[in-house]
Specification:
The chain is α+β, with helices and mostly antiparallel strands and about 140 residues long. The chain has 4 helices and 4 strands.
Length: about 140
């Protein structure tokens, strides 16, 4: 009986060790491409009225929220765009500096280098979250 328990224990440990060696990166979702990140950022910062529905779909916090909440987000967005245009003249280019992965790659902190028309530059933290096989602005 003791020999059987030892064999069972050895087999169990072997199976656990094989499972433990599973490649964790397989669980990480595919990160968005540079073009996808820049498109999301431009939607976030340079929204026009025809982009409002796309903007609301891209913002994860707007999902399953009342229309009043979404309208407030649109109002804040428009205010931010006006201030950005006034202070910088608008965006010339956006490049990814580096990316930090969190929560098994389902949350990304993307650090962007943004160049503006007034010749200023800024490093911007642009957080994304992966839900239901899609990347959203967090």
């Amino acid at each position: 009986m003791v020999a059987f328990i030892k064999k069972l224990l050895c087999v169990s440990l072997a199976l656990l060790s094989l499972y433990g060696c599973k490649n964790i990166s397989e669980e990480y979702p595919e990160p968005p491409t540079k073009d996808e990140v820049v498109d999301l950022y431009m939607l976030y910062t340079d929204m026009n009225e025809e982009d409002e529905e796309d903007f609301l779909r891209a913002i994860y916090s707007c999902h399953n929220k009342p229309q009043e909440y979404c309208n407030q987000m649109l109002t804040l967005r428009k205010q931010y765009k006006r201030e950005l245009e006034k202070e910088t003249g608008g965006i010339i280019s956006v490049d990814i500096d580096h990316v930090e992965r969190h929560n098994h790659g389902k949350m990304l902190n993307i650090f962007l280098n943004v160049c503006y028309k007034n010749q200023s530059t800024e490093e911007v933290l642009f957080p994304l979250i992966h839900v239901d096989n899609k990347w959203y602005i967090r």
